[in-house]
Amino acid sequence: MDWKNLPGGGNIEDRRGGGGGGIPGGGVAVGGIGAVIIALIAMFFGIDPSSILGGGDSSAPVQTQPQQTQPQRQSQSQTQTQPQRQGTQPADETGAFVDRILVSTNDVWTKVFQASGKQYREPTLVLYSGRTQGGCGVAQSAVGPFYCPLDSKVYLDTGFFTQMKRQLGGGGDFAYAYVIAHEIGHHVQNELGIADQAERAQRSARDEAASNQISVRLELQADCFAGVWGNRSAQYTKITQTDVQQAINTATAIGDDNLQKQGRGYAVPDSFTHGTASQRIRWFTTGLKSGNASQCDTFAGNYGSL
């Protein structure tokens, strides 16, 4: 993936102390594999459960008083050529990578929304090291990247990329981009009102297993949205079969079944919140092959879509 051909200048808040290093080593690495697996089962590639899914692992950020209003951000116009952007551009390689992937996702979703007569408000992505305060509480590196709907921000400790490569069996530029695109997928759900409908459905669910199934559908849809981005971003940067395999390897590694087997030795399907490896691969590749967000209806028409 030749990401350096992508434009930069997205809505980045760089809160890291001294900047990062090269991909994938920027930021601070998280703790031991046991703690990582426990955290990732609840939080890996997901919306902060304390704010949008109701409950979750104790490692999730602590909920703070919700903001009454969200800042309004105007979506930016698109052309078929690479757009010129104004914004913060981190100087280090890891920060520049995240910045350019963020801009690419915004460009894709602005076009998708415009085609449906909707306006897309671009999210902000916060880069941090170790921990930082956010709209959903304290973001910590141990919980992995997540999206906070209360402030429309994605929180990412870039040391997580190192963790992916060393301990979770996933690595490579396109795999790291998949992480970012998945979190932006949760922002898309928030913009469309899907996340709110899912939260209400969870509150009325008959039991925890039924609530977890709604969470799984949210996560699989975000995987599919990440695939849509991958398909549409190919007009700006070359994506090879090796790149795709890197993302598939990551989806396999972070399936609930594989994570639970690695962490506890067996899997408990009723406790799944993000989907099995095969489900995550299926929905990611659905979006990647079609490039069509309407193909990402993991809720079978029950909720709104593009």
What string gives the helices and strands in order? EHEHHEEEEEHHHHHHH
Gyration radius, rounded: 17 Å
Helix percent reads 40-55%
The number of distinct helices, counting runs of at least 4 residues, comes to 10
Task: Tell me the domain tally.
Answer: 1
Q: Please state the overall shape, judged from the principal axes of the Cα atoms.
A: globular
* Strand coverage percent: 5-15%
| Alpha-beta content class | alpha/beta
Residue-averaged pLDDT: 76
Q: For the report, how would you describe the main beta sheet?
A: 5 strands, mixed
Count every beta strand, where a strand is a DSSP E run of 2 or more residues: 7
Sequence stretches where pLDDT stays below 50 over 5 or more residues: 18-22, 24-87
Strand line-up in the sheet with most strands: 1-3-7-6-2
Descriptive overview:
It is a single chain. The protein is α/β, with parallel strands linked by helices and 306 residues long. It has one domain (3-59, 89-296). 46% of the residues lie in helices and 8% in strands. The protein has ten helices and seven strands. The chain has helices at residues 33-43, 49-53, 93-115, 159-167, 173-192, 194-203, 208-233, 241-253, 256-264, 277-290, and strands at residues 12-14, 46-47, 124-128, 131-134, 137-140, 146-148, 153-157. Strands 1-3-7-6-2 form a five-stranded mixed sheet. The protein has a two-stranded antiparallel ribbon with strand order 4-5. Helix 1 runs antiparallel to helix 9 (256-264) and helix 5 (173-192) packs across helix 7. The protein is globular. The model is unreliable at 18-22 and 24-87 (pLDDT under 50).
